């Protein structure tokens, strides 16, 4: 291409694209801001989630080292007698046993992951971990020695030589910090101990939590894993490090997907903002476009010209949004952490990384949203006859409006398709068709908007107040213009209403569930968080013997590995039987009385029923004490606290099967006339300086609701941004209409209307349009909330 041809091309690009954009700076700025906000939110959410997952994956691979297979048991561990068997298995080159305990700090409300290792065995499987111990290996063999990661030391202002106090059972264990791990060893709060010391000091004698295996060269990992799994006790799984990382990440997958969808909704709303502004810009430039057609510009060239404007807006908005997204993500990680209020990554300290694929993805999404927003106006402008557009007045356009307003079949087709999608199952646990149903409902509502607007506007009564009468007449004469003005706010407001209804419904259900599951007067827990706190059998007797206690029910909480691809199921051992189940659990549907000779009953949560495809009356096997024990599903109950599933078993039966007499917490009912304060003080006297947590039902309920609100706080921010983009759309729409109606305003001023009256007329048009849009948004949001509650959330 010659220099002259390139100069001509640049001049044409300036005339076709740049000049119309610079001629409408306000409209372009708001459209660009809408795209930038949507892209920024998407980039922020993706980067924070991606950084947290990368850190989580890095921690698992750092601990696994060169291991090919991880033999993992439930949080309660498995007998250490399994270790020699694993180490002598043909094909195993080295085996490294570990104890992994989430221990409660005595001086803080946080927990610390403590990993007990055999330093000499770890050197064969986790060489980097062993190397990070340096010269501290000999000191680590002391019974009270612990090495801390730099992150843990900085978080709690600890140094070498300080003491670390942990809650184990109801007692305090004091450890001596002999040094700090190098910063690159672990970026999470972690403590490293000798495995024998960890078993002793953390009350884990005779048990292990995992054994990492490095296989001999040439061993087929998949075949070895399958052969090994067949020899392991029930509840102990052999998995690869990749499976281990995927199982941990799956806990937060639903939360991350929903945040990503909310961020894309903001971008979707930004695309509607571009649509609104481009439609009105096309109306304003109707004569100019018609003149270009008369002078020989083809329809294809005209469409490309108008699409180029959308591409420029999308590209500029995407670049601005990507830069803003990186800045926001960096600030959020530095000041709020990676959990975004939900607690999934509360221990992670992720670092932000530049991701070219993410940049390209969101750049393309931003350009695509703006281009699609400009596509419909471009096609309509190209279809319009030049001669009709050159004539003065809007009669033809308005007639065209009325004809187009009568088309309802496209919207009905979309609604029917949405109903079919809402009935489709999830794909790999992701409610893809549920999200498609919401999108189809939105598009159908937008297509139906002109007719709804025309129907409602025609029924507005005329007023004697001239500005109001003119406002009503203007809206009645151009219902499609009104519908275009309403589109952005309907989309954003309906999504806000849908989310608000869903969250409010969820919160009310959660509140009612708390009230039903907290019937006791006082609740005593050995330690909040972690798995190192418990009440021994003797301590349970001490609690039961306190004067003023009418009854006390102890509960044991353990984890069960039922599927290596899924997170553990929580086992709740508590006093319960067939007669009392319906009173002590929020049952869903009728309970079953197992027939004589059937396995003993258990009651599963709704989540466990859905994840494992179980039903009432079905026989299941649970891994207890290394054996698979058959049970009968006697009923399904609702549980909002354990999203990976839970199963309730009679505690007496659990103790008989496992020999575990410990308890994690106790529910206390007071005798009539007994003061709760007096019983609480007696409990504290029984367990001085133990960190035992004592709460009444109202305190637990208030704390749980605060956690709920913190978890959903980020959704409120995303909703606010969507509303902000919708308001941008209304602002752009009316400013463009005002600019396009200058001649009309001049005529009105000529016949005697004052500037104040013209301003009042525009304000009333905006008020009527916003009122209709809000009403439509409420109805549409209610419909979409049904899909969110009964389809998306369930799946």
Structure, described:
The chain has 795 residues and is α+β, with helices and mostly antiparallel strands. It contains 29 helices and 21 strands. Strand 17 (619-624) and strand 18 form a beta hairpin. The radius of gyration is 33 Å and the shape is elongated.
Name the assembly state.
single chain
Low-confidence stretches: 5-18, 392-402
Helix proportion of residues, in percent? 55-70%
Strand content: 15-25%
Q: What is the rounded distance between the termini?
A: 56 Å
Helix- and strand-based class? alpha+beta
- Report the radius of gyration as a whole number of Å: 33 Å
How many strands appear in the DSSP assignment? 21
**Outline, from the CA principal axes?**
elongated
Average per-residue pLDDT, rounded, comes to 79
Number of helices: 29
Main beta-sheet strand count, sense and barrel state: 10 strands, mixed
Topology diagram in text:
Elements: H1 3-22, H2 25-64, E1 69-72, E2 78-79, H3 82-87, E3 92-105, E4 111-117, H4 119-125, H5 127-133, H6 137-140, E5 145-148, H7 150-155, E6 163-168, E7 171-180, E8 190-194, H8 195-201, E9 207-208, E10 210-215, H9 221-231, E11 237-239, H10 241-250, H11 253-284, H12 286-294, H13 299-335, H14 356-383, H15 386-390, H16 395-405, H17 409-422, H18 432-458, H19 466-477, H20 479-517, E12 522-525, H21 537-544, E13 549-560, E14 569-574, H22 581-584, E15 587-588, E16 601-605, H23 606-612, E17 619-624, E18 627-637, E19 646-650, H24 651-658, E20 665-670, H25 676-686, E21 693-696, H26 697-711, H27 713-740, H28 742-750, H29 755-792
Parallel strand pairs: 4-8, 5-7, 14-19, 16-18
Antiparallel strand pairs: 1-10, 1-11, 2-9, 3-4, 3-6, 3-10, 5-8, 6-7, 12-20, 12-21, 13-14, 13-20, 15-18, 16-19, 17-18
Helix pairs in contact: 1-13, 2-10, 2-11, 2-13, 2-14, 2-27, 4-5, 11-14, 11-20, 11-27, 13-14, 16-18, 17-18, 18-20, 18-29, 19-29, 20-26, 20-27, 20-29
């Amino acid at each position: 291409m010659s220099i002259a041809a390139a100069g001509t091309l640049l001049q044409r690009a300036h005339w076709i694209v740049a000049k119309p954009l610079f001629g409408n700076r306000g409209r372009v700025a708001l459209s660009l801001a809408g795209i930038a906000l949507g892209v920024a939110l998407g980039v922020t959410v993706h980067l924070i989630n991606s950084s947290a997952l990368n850190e989580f994956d890095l921690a698992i691979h750092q601990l696994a080292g060169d291991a090919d297979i991880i033999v993992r048991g439930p949080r309660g561990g498995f007998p250490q007698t399994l270790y020699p068997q694993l180490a002598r298995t043909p094909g195993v080159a080295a085996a490294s046993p570990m104890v992994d305990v989430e221990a409660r700090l005595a001086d803080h409300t946080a927990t610390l992951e403590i990993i007990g290792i055999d330093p000499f065995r770890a050197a064969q499987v986790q060489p980097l971990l062993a190397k990070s111990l340096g010269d501290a290996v000999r000191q680590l063999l002391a019974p009270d020695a612990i090495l801390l990661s730099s992150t843990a030391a900085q978080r709690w202002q600890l140094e070498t030589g300080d003491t670390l106090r942990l809650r184990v059972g109801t007692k305090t264990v004091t450890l001596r910090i002999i040094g700090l791990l190098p910063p690159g060893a672990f970026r999470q709060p972690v403590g490293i101990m000798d495995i024998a010391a960890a078993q002793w000091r953390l009350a884990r004698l005779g048990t292990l939590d995992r054994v990492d295996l490095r296989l001999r060269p040439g061993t087929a990992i998949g075949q070895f894993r399958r052969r090994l799994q067949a020899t392991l006790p029930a509840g102990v799984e052999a998995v690869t490090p990749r499976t281990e990382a995927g199982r941990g990440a799956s806990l937060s997958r639903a939360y991350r997907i929903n945040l990503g969808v909310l961020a894309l909704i903001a971008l979707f709303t930004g695309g509607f903002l571009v649509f609104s502004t481009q439609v009105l810009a096309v109306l304003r430039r109707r004569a100019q476009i018609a003149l270009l057609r008369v002078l020989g510009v083809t329809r294809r060239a005209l469409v490309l010209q108008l699409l180029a404007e959308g591409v420029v807006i999308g590209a500029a908005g995407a670049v601005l949004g990507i830069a803003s997204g990186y800045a926001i993500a960096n600030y959020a990680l530095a000041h709020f952490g990676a959990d975004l209020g939900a607690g999934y990554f509360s221990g992670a300290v992720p670092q932000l990384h530049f991701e070219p694929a993410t940049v390209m993805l969101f750049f393309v999404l931003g350009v695509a949203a703006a281009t699609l927003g400009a596509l419909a106006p471009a096609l309509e402008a190209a279809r319009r006859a030049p001669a009709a557009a050159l004539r003065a007045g809007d009669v033809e356009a308005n007639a065209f409006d009325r004809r187009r307003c009568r088309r309802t079949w496209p919207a009905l087709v979309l609604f029917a398709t949405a109903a079919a999608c809402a009935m489709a199952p999830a794909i790999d646990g992701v409610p893809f068709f549920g999200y498609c149903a919401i999108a189809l409902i939105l598009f159908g509502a937008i297509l139906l908007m002109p007719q709804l607007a025309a129907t409602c506007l025609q029924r507005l009564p005329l007023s004697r107040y001239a500005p109001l009468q003119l406002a009503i007449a203007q809206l009645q004469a151009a219902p499609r213009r009104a519908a275009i003005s309403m589109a952005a706010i309907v989309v954003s407001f309906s999504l806000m209403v849908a989310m608000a209804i869903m969250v409010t419904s969820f919160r009310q259900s959660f509140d009612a569930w708390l009230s039903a599951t907290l019937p006791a007067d006082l609740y005593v827990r050995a330690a909040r968080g972690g798995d190192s706190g418990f009440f021994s059998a003797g301590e349970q007797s001490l609690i039961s013997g306190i004067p003023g206690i009418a009854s006390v029910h102890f509960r044991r909480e353990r984890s069960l590995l039922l599927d290596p691809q899924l997170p553990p199921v929580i086992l709740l051992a508590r006093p319960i039987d067939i007669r009392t189940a319906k009173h002590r659990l929020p049952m869903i549907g009728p309970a079953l009385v197992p027939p004589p000779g059937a396995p003993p009953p258990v009651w599963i949560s709704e989540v466990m029923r859905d994840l494992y495809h179980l039903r009432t009356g079905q026989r299941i096997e649970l891994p207890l004490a290394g054996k698979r024990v058959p049970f009968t599903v006697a009923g399904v109950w609702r549980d909002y606290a354990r999203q990976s599933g839970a199963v309730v078993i009679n505690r007496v039966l659990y103790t008989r099967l496992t020999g575990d007499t410990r308890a994690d917490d106790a529910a206390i009912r007071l005798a009539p006339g007994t003061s709760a304060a007096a019983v609480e003080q007696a409990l504290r006297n029984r367990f001085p300086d133990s960190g035992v947590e004592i709460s009444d039902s109202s305190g637990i309920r208030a704390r749980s609701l605060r956690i709920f609100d913190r978890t959903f706080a980020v959704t409120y921010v995303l909703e606010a941004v969507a509303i902000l983009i919708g308001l941008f759309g209304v602002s752009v729409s009316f400013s463009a209409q005002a600019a396009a109606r200058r001649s009309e305003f001049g005529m009105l001023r000529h016949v005697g209307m004052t500037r104040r009256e013209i301003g009042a007329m525009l304000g009333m048009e905006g008020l009527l349009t916003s009122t209709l849009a809000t009403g439509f948004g409420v109805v549409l949001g209610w419909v979409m909330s049904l899909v969110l509650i009964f389809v998306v959330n369930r799946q």
